Amino acid sequence: MVFYILDFTAELENLTNLQQRGGCSDPNYTYYFKVKCENCGEISQKETCVVLSESVPLPNGRGTANLVQKCKLCGREGTIQMVPGHGEPLTIERSQAGIRAKLMVFDCRGFEPVNFSFENGWKAESVSIPGF
Ligand SMILES: [Zn+2]
After folding, report:
1. How far is the centre of ligand 1, averaged over its atoms, from the C-alpha of 15 (Å)?
2. CA of residue 92 to ligand 1 center, whole Å
3. Domain locations along the chain
4. Contacts of 89 (CB under 8 A, 6+ apart)
């Protein structure tokens, strides 16, 4: 198994605490990305989406994962399990210091997540401006 940490940064203008709408561990936030097969290197054509609150049974019957998918080219199966509890909001201090904020950790077997795409579902707080 390999753990992948998805992190991000942004230039915040009068904003702070940029994070998923329901907070860093929002169980209903959807992550969209493509997966690269570790066996043959094929990258899926379609984006995959995973949500913490949705799991599917593993083919071997032992437990569940947030994603079970087969490589279209070589047929090998891979799984992705999300590991919550590591997310953090992007604060203005982090943004200015060039420190990336962690979004989510993915425990991947057989696949490597690539091309994460940002979708809707974000919230931020505005900076209080002195004098207003
Ligand atoms: Zn493959």
Report:
1. 42
2. 41
3. 2-125
4. 16, 17, 18, 19, 24, 101
**Residues present in the chain in total:** 132
Q: Are 91 and 10 in contact (CB under 8 A)?
A: no
Instruction: Convert the pLDDT of each residue in 15-63 to its tens digit.
Output: 999 999 999 889 999 999 999 999 999 999 999 999 999 999 998 899 9
Spatial distance between the Cα atoms of 71 and 41, rounded to a whole number of angstroms:
10
Task: Return the pLDDT at 95.
Answer: 96
Could you write out the DSSP letters of every residue in the chain? -EEEEEEE----SSEEEEEETT-TT-TTPEEEEEEEETTT-PBPSS-EEEETT--EE-TTSSSEESEEEE-TTT--EEEEEEE-S----B-HHHHHHTPPEEEEEEEEESEEEEEEE--S-EEEEEPPPTT-
Rg, Å, the chain Cα set:
17
